[in-house]
C-alpha cells in the first residue's frame, strides 16, 4: 500500500468531524473533503518518488523514512537541507496548504530539542521525547489549537458567566489521565490531521491555572468534536482550481469531558511553564523557518498571477501597473532576502542549529501586511476583468461559445486561456477560499498589533542605546 492509501486508511478512524450540522460518516469520500484528501495523499506519495525522496525525507534512528521537517539540525548545512525540502513541499501546493506544509511538525521538533531546558516540569522531557519520536517515526500530520473561543476578549477565561468550562479546562483527573471540558479555536486542517497539539497562546493569569495545560490528542479521541466552518471546497475543477483541491478547513475543537492519557499531558496547571515553552526562541526560529519558506512560495504564486493578468490585458505597459507589479516582486525578494539572512546567520543552541530568529520574525510580521496588499494589487490590475467570465468554463463549448470566444479573449491569448487565468485569480482573490487565505495570512500567527508590539519588546535594543550614547560623548562625530 502506498503512503497516500495508508493515509486515507488512517482517516477512517471514527473521528467526530461535524459539517452542516451532521457528523461526517465517510470523510475520504465526502465531497467537501475528498479533493483536499487527494492532494495530501499525492504529497505523501511524492515523498517516495525516487527523484525527490532524498530531498523530502530522511531516515530516523529507528530506520523509518520520514518528512524532513523532523530532521534535527545538527550542523548548519541541515538548515539548508530543511529549507530545500520546505521549498519543494510548499511549492507543490503554491504555498496555500499550511498545515500539511509542516509548520507544527517543526514546532514539535523545537519542543523536543529543547525538552531538557524544562527539567523543572515533572515528566515533560521524557513524555515529549516519546511523543515526538512516535510522531516522527510514523510521519504523522499535526496541527494545533491554542485560543479560547472568542466570546468576550475583555474578560479572562474564568469570567464567562457561571460556566468556567467554556474555554477548555481540566475538569477532573483519573488514574489514566485528565479530563478536559470546553473548547479551543481555531485549528486549521484538523479533520485531515493525525494529531492536534493543544496549548495556550495567551499568557494565563494566576486564576486561570486550569486553562494552562499543554497536551496532544489524536483526531479520533473519544468525546472530542471537530466542528468545521462552512466548506469552501468546490467540485468544479476548472472553475475553482484552488478550492477544488486545497480547502484546508478550519475547525473549533470541543472537548466533551475527553480523557487525555497522562503520557500525552505535557503541562498541567502551570501557566508560567506554558508561557516559557511557548516563547522559547529556538522553537520560534525553527518553526518560523518553515512558514517563511511557504510564504515565499505563496507570494511568488501571487506575483506570477499578477504579471500574467497584466500581460493578458495589455496593461503591463502602464507605469503605475509596472510599479504595482514591481511591488509584488519586491515582496518576494524581501522575504527571500530575510530567509537567506536568517539561514546564513544560523546559530547553534547547544548542539542544534536554528535560523537567526530576528529576520524570521521580521519576515513573518511583514507577511501579515504583504499578503493583503498583494491581493489588493491583483484586484487593481484586473479591475472588473475578474467578473468578465462565464459562470462555467464549459460554456465556451456551448451555444453561447461564439460570443465568449469573441468578447472574452485577451490581448495576447484566446478566450479559453484568459478565462482560465481569471478563474484562477478569482479563486485566489474573491472566492470564499481566497478570502479565507487573506484572513489566514493576516492572523495565523497572531494579530499584527500584538505581533509587532512583541517584536518591539523582544528586540535586543542595547546596540541602539549604545549608538545614542556614543553620539552624545564622541567629539569626532559632529
Ligand atoms: C484562517 C485562520 C487559521 C488559523 N489557524 C490556527 C491554527 O491552526 N491554530 C491556532 O492555534 N490558531 C489558528 N488561528 C488563530 C490565530 O492565531 C488567531 O486568529 C489570532 O491569534 C488572533 O486571535 P483571535 O482570532 O482570537 O482574535 P482576537 O484576539 O479575538 O482579536 C480580535 C480583535 O481584537 C483585538 N484585540 C483582542 N484582544 C486584544 C488585546 N489584548 N490587545 C490588543 N488588541 C486586542 C485584535 O487586535 C483584533 O483586532 C487561525 C486564524 C485564522 C484566521
Automatic annotation (TrEMBL):
SUPFAM superfamilies: Acyl-CoA dehydrogenase C-terminal domain-like, Acyl-CoA dehydrogenase NM domain-like. FAD binds at residues 150-153, 188, 447-450. Residues 289-470 form the HpaB/PvcC/4-BUDH C-terminal domain. InterPro entries: Acyl-CoA_Oxase/DH_mid-dom_sf, AcylCo_DH-like_C, AcylCoA_DH/oxidase_NM_dom_sf, HpaB/PvcC/4-BUDH, HpaB/PvcC/4-BUDH_C, HpaB/PvcC/4-BUDH_N. Residues 4-267 form the HpaB/PvcC/4-BUDH N-terminal domain. One of its GO terms (molecular function) is oxidoreductase activity, acting on the CH-CH group of donors. Keywords: FAD, Flavoprotein, Oxidoreductase. It comes from Peribacillus asahii. This is 4-hydroxyphenylacetate 3-hydroxylase. The lineage of its organism: Bacteria, Bacillati, Bacillota, Bacilli, Bacillales. The keyword Flavoprotein applies.
